[in-house]
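Q: I have 717 residues here and want to know how they pack in 3D. Can you give me a structure?
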Amino acid sequence: MNLREILITTTLIVSSISPSLGQSQDQINVKELENKGEEQIDNGQWIDARDTYKELVKAYPENNEYNFLLGLSIFKSGIEREKAVDYLKKVNHKIIEESGYFYGQALLYDGQFDQAISTFKEFKPLIGDNKDGVKLRAEVNNMIRQAEDGKVISKQVNDQMRVDNLGEGINTELTEYAPVLYQDQKFLVFSATKSSSDFKGEFEVEKEADDDIYTSGYELLNDNWKERTRPEGLHIPQSVNTPQSESGINFSSDKRTFYFYRNTDLYASENGGSPVAQKVEVGDLTDADMTAIYTNKDADQRFMVAYLPESGSGGLDIFISKNEGGTWSNWKPMDGINTPYDEDSPYLAEDGTFYFSSKGHNSMGGHDLFKATEENGTWKVENLGVPINSTGNDIHLVPADDKGEIFYLASDRKGGYGNMDIYRLWTCKPIEESTINGKLLAEGKPLSANLTLANVDGEKIETIEVDNKTGDYSINVEPGKAYSLVTTAENYLNDTIAFSIPEQCVEYDLYQKIELSLQKDQDGNVIAQNTTVTNALYDIEKYRDDQSPEEFFASLPDGHRLQPDVKTSSIELDEPILLAAAQFKDVRFGFDSDEINGTAKAIVEKVGNYLNDHDKVTVKLTGHTDTKGPSWYNKMLSKRRAKSVSSALEEMGISDDRITIDFKGEEQPIVEDYDEEGNYIEEAAAKNRRVDIEVIIPEEKEMKEDKTEKSNETKEK
């Protein structure tokens, strides 16, 4: 019992078994649907048959035969094949013996390896011992082996490899395959079924297929492929397509010649000119024996995919012929590449690596993609693994760079549009550190300010000083992490900005802009502060050419994928006077000193005056040092500095119960004060010798009480 016999048996089941119904219009409709479905299966119209049996299963959800034929049609249609499992599992496999064969395949495709193995093993005793039965048993054994290998390979995922479906401009529910790249991955050639009327379903070699060659160009700004078109003369002539079936192979190394095959004949188009058939000696072979002819880019090696039981290994095999001094050698099977099962889609890269697809070796479902290198006349074959391979059919792999990090291929894996789609697979080697180049402006102008970077848990990472002349700042961040950024600027409220850095696979700088603005009432009192953050956390340099970021953003249409993320937050103030307490600059000290002099003295006086104006406000003083000297000594020095500021405030009349001190020593430097060679950097160290001032404002109610008390004091005077 072979596959063809199974399909014939399926047809007989449709015509001979139906649910018991009374004489009614419903029975007539059911009979019409049964006849319709039977005819569609006879003609291999699996997509149409799927729709027909959906109607029957909807009417009779527990019917054994309808569930089987719907599951079969879904699986053979090539569209969301995994959904066949839902129907085939309802089938009594003892009644419809053939169902186990398809149920096992659907389970394998869905990645349910253990269940697939047990299903295939239950099916095996039903296979006969005739010639066809021997072949079918070998096929089932191979699928059991694929499921066993799948359990291993599916756990060894290349986490750095990313998979992109090329999208609806390229792919459809029908079949797209044989990707060929012209250069720089900006011009794509591929083959596809012309229309639904030409397509019956399921990936298989169909002699009656009528496929054509299509092209598409890549749009950088939109990051997608344009709607596919037939060749228009750019690189490929319009005459490449005929009523016969065409499929692209590759471009020559100099990009001047495009090779393709028409049915099983090899053709070449030079400089976009009319295709010319290439002489290929195939002896007594006929089109029935061959499925395709391929050539490498240098046109000195050719590969034939053919079914030749007498000279091959079994199934479809790959044969090679080389041009040796102007004479083509006889076709030879590629021993070490070929297996008793199907091999296809050969591709010889310029570095000598040979790529092909196979149902044998250690494949994990359908065709897997392999690479092979020749060592001392022996091929070393390696499965390319997940995610290049899937539990579906993966074919026609084409390397797109010299490093082996970018590939294009065709696959009917889960998640596609249907049947074979074209995919791009690329390697992401995560970048450990990235840089945000930002700008902070207040009322449209730069100002003196600090930014405090913290992780998602609120732990401080560093403090960044903003250039008071340009507003520029630079922050080093780790891609894939979330951060918060606290803005600190005199006469502005501190505000916290949350953002996440996306994964980065190549080095590029990120763009950020922070704009602070104050809202005032009619009397000129500040009633709110707005903070607008613009994040363009992608490679803006890749797209903007010589435009400024602002010009580039303005040139993009609304809703464009590259439009930056812009968010505005607002802090409303019930007490405008509180704005002055937003943040006082830190008090800085000389080396090994706790004396308050110059600018530091002015800052302390400013804090003291503010505290005297607001009796309910308290302050926290945190002392710090640079990293020079013993850590135990620096700890004590930071304490002396905090106490020095505290004493100065007390001298201004601030009670000690409103002052809290803390001291960190050298534990929390703002900047590194030693370079990589161990040299002390005085300018940097000066920023670390400080006392941070944190003004703690009580609840609004307490502030109003404070304001009332002050007012009463004034009246009494």
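Q: Anything worth noting?
A: The longest strand covers residues 510-520. The CA atoms of residues 531 and 569 lie 5 Å apart.
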